[in-house]
Amino acid sequence: MTATAPKSATGKPRPSHLFYQGRQRRPLIDRAEGIYMWDVHGRRYLDGSSGAMVTNLGHSNPRVLAAMREQMDKATFAYRLHFENEPAEALAAEVAREMPGDLDRVFFVSGGSEATESCLKMARNWALATGQPKRWKIISRYPSYHGSTMGALGVTGYDPLTEPYAPMMVEMPKIPAPTCYLDRDNHSMEERGRRYADMLTERIEREGPESVLAFIMEPVGGASTGALVAPDSYYGRVREICDRYGILLIYDEVMSGAGRTGRFLGADHWGIVPDLVALSKGFASGYAPLGAMVAPPRLVEPVLDAGGFPHGHTYAGNPLACAAGRAVLREILENDLIANAAARGDSLLTRLEGLKARFPFIGDVRGKGLLTAIELVADAETMQVLPPELNAYARVVELAYERGLIVYSRRTRGGREGDHIMVCPPLIVTEEQLDELFESFTDALAAFA
Ligand code: PLP
């Protein structure tokens, strides 16, 4: 039980029939507005991680709430095989406008794992429809996270989440994620980036190129790697390798998409046009469960011609979630929040870098836009990890929580060792609010030191 365990009026822990992944308890939420949240005891928290990097737009945006209310008065659900709906049609067109290259077909789902699953299945259906039935392997990276359903776990490189289910799932081939900051050699970062990309070629050759269907990656890493950004040389090279072997390139932008990194997609930083894109989280900013797979006609048309895409989820494309997603997208675009993410992100990275001088256990500071993280280590020179029993990643989160600041953490380096803390406030954050965030964060780190 933590210091923040919820209490009933009698002072005893509040009983609950609910359970999630552990025994940790949290207070009941009362309300939320902008970047702040209040529990039922009136305590205020600064949402310094946008939940789990979700609430890009911040809480209780009046325009989104109005759009949802308006839709609620019309129809909250209409099954897609019985009716089409205007919010879904309009949102698909608006998403297509923001996507690079020929990515203009949108398939709605209700979350990130469903978006990943849809990409994996779409890739396979495309291979079948185009006479390539031997292609089925999807190479991914280690560490990585692509979702909690069995297909998504098969391409996920994060031991604590995958190991229990190993006998029950198809484990796909993995190559190392480009953790160039850990390498101690004489090569430049760009050379290292090329080297990590070339590991894809080696793996494709080892697997047999005719059996490989796709490569899936997060352009800016999420919780499994703590906002990992590869050297610029990596991105174009990976695209070239996929093209050379006729392999689809899937970008999992569930966390990095919808403006979080300072461009609409992470891919946009490097001018990459992926073959499939998974979106969720900030896409609906927590207002409704919503995600999407975005694909080009060159993949979709052969699949539909060959008899259709045998995949879908009941809640997909429901009018209420799409009305929320549409209002979120408009607010993000019309208020220039992507530019704000870029500017505040630069400021955030500079501030985090500045903490290194005071806290020698901060080994690496990384990220793009408002997707940033610090890695905590025993020795910043060698990047040796802290003893696992210290539980540094969880302790810093608790110390921040006690100070009214929410940040996010996970074990990094595949989940077995290493600690990182993600600092990812909503895209609406101001410079003054970053001052406030930093005061609490610095205080939490000082308490940990
Ligand atoms: N892909 C990435 C990159 C993610 O960060 C996540 C969630 O953290 C997912 C997929 C899974 O999304 P969801 O939790 O909505 O199923």
UniProtKB/TrEMBL annotation:
Its cofactor is pyridoxal 5'-phosphate. Keywords: Aminotransferase, Pyridoxal phosphate, Transferase. The keyword NAD does not apply. SUPFAM superfamilies: PLP-dependent transferases (SSF53383). Pfam families: Aminotran_3. Signal peptide: none annotated. It comes from the Bacteria. CDD domains: OAT_like (cd00610). Belongs to the class-III pyridoxal-phosphate-dependent aminotransferase family. This is Aspartate aminotransferase family protein. It comes from Ferruginivarius sediminum. The lineage of its organism: Bacteria, Pseudomonadati, Pseudomonadota, Alphaproteobacteria, Rhodospirillales.
